[in-house]
Write a structure and sequence with these properties.
The chain is built from 8 helices and no strands. The protein has 243 residues and is mostly helical. Helix 1 packs parallel to helix 5, helix 2 packs across helix 5 and helix 4 packs antiparallel against helix 7.
Length: 243
């Protein structure tokens, strides 16, 4: 359990770091996009060689495949509901909001989007710990949290919120996502191999959906041409750690 707490704190610490940096400095979009691209590559590698590989080994093609699709569907439904709440229509919520202008509401919407992305990622991290330490997924989540919280903090500061308020808000989000890691580990501990396979693949499907809907489109839009190299670098680092 201590390992789950430490992993949760490490992965979520990026939210606090990003909030502090974003409260004091507005980085170029290229910087955050390249970080998102790096995180995307790392997540792809971690999902392919840890999460889904383990799910496939434990439950076979049918269980792992259905779990993957169910996880992606769950994310899409939740993300679409958030988009309708924030923007009045469904679609890529974080990108829609990011281009809508800088205000307190924009920053809070980004916070909500990051939380929605982060819960399945951190649950997946916790579930993966049932089969051993997952450094690749930890690093991937860290580098996805950092640019998202940085951009959100910038929007909240431009909306008039104080530095203390911004940092406190993102710290609360970090605590929530740390709890998600511990919860994932606790739940996974009592699962049979077949059910654990579904849980792993479900979490993986949600993460894949967040990659396709949020991280990679943002990296592609603002990070060209460096996004391709950053994605490859993230994939390579994650693969080396998993090998």
């Amino acid at each position: 359990m201590l390992t789950a707490v430490l992993f949760g704190l490490t992965a979520s610490s990026a939210l606090v770091i990003g909030a502090v940096v974003g409260s004091l400095w507005k980085p170029p979009k290229l910087v955050t996009a390249v970080l998102l691209a790096f995180a995307s590559g790392a997540l792809i590698s971690a999902l392919a060689f840890e999460l889904f590989e383990e799910a496939f080994h434990l439950g076979g093609a049918v269980r792992s495949g259905l779990g993957l699709l169910a996880g992606a569907a769950a994310f899409v439904i939740a993300d679409s509901a958030l988009d309708r709440y924030v923007t009045g229509h469904s679609g890529p919520g974080q990108r829609e909001v990011a281009h809508a202008g800088a205000s307190g509401g924009v920053g809070l919407a980004l916070l909500a989007a990051v939380t929605l992305d982060g819960v399945p990622e951190n649950l997946a991290l916790g579930v993966s710990l049932a089969g051993g330490v997952s450094l690749t997924l930890l690093i991937a989540i860290f580098f996805s949290n950092l640019p998202e919280s940085l951009v959100g903090a910038v929007a909240m500061r431009e909306g008039g919120q104080s530095t203390r308020s911004v940092i406190a808000t993102w710290t609360a989000c970090a605590v929530l996502l740390t709890v998600a890691v511990v919860l994932g580990r606790v739940v996974a501990a009592g699962l049979s191999d077949s059910v654990l396979a579904v849980a792993l693949s479900f979490a993986g499907g949600a993460v894949i959906a967040s990659l396709a809907d949020t991280l990679m489109p943002e990296a592609f839009e603002h990070g060209r041409p460096l996004n391709a190299f950053a994605t490859a670098a993230g994939f390579f680092l994650s693969y080396v750690l998993a090998a």
